[in-house]
Design a protein that fits this description.
By secondary structure, the chain is mostly helical. The protein is 89% helix and 0% strand. The longest helix is centred in the N-terminal third of the chain and has 47 residues, at 23-69. The chain starts with a helix and ends with a helix.
């Protein structure tokens, strides 16, 4: 394998910083990290683009409805809440992808600490799910209240 002196120095610095026993092991792990990030970044970029598109489309559609039909603030809120839920779900999926990449990379950096990395990921996913569930419940309560007020 041909590698420049600067690249070799960077590998050695990474090897030392991460306490990797050999240069070949450091190179193997760096290749795994690169492959993991290459896969994950594509997924994360796609999910981010979808989340952005969903948000943009929602704002455009709601704005157009307001202009065309003179929708009241309450009606606007009723239409906006499901869109916000979609956005929350898209962001949750994106966060999970990024967190998964970080967990895999951290596990490759730290020999023998895969269990710690997986526990950290599990805890973060649980916290993210709890926050998402709370946000969903709050949005649902608001939507139900507005729908009830409209039916009265």
């Amino acid at each position: 394998m041909v590698i420049s002196e600067d690249e070799l120095r960077a590998v050695e610095d990474w090897q030392f910083a991460n306490r990797i026993p050999s240069k070949s092991e450091a190179i193997r792990r760096l290749v795994q990290i690169g492959l993991t990030l290459d896969r994950g970044v594509s997924d994360a970029a796609e999910q981010s683009a979808k989340a952005f598109h969903t948000s943009f489309e929602a704002v455009f559609n709601v704005s157009r409805a307001i202009e065309q039909h003179g929708i009241s603030g309450d009606d606007f809120l009723v239409q906006l809440l499901p869109v916000l839920q979609e956005q929350i779900d898209a962001q949750k999926k994106l966060s999970d992808t990024i967190l998964g990449m970080r967990t895999e990379v951290n596990a490759l950096r730290s020999p023998g600490k895969m269990e710690d990395a997986m526990e950290l990921r599990s805890t973060a996913l649980d916290e993210m799910k709890q926050a998402s569930d709370e946000m969903t419940a709050t949005l649902q309560k608001i939507l139900n209240k507005k729908l009830q007020e409209q039916s009265e």
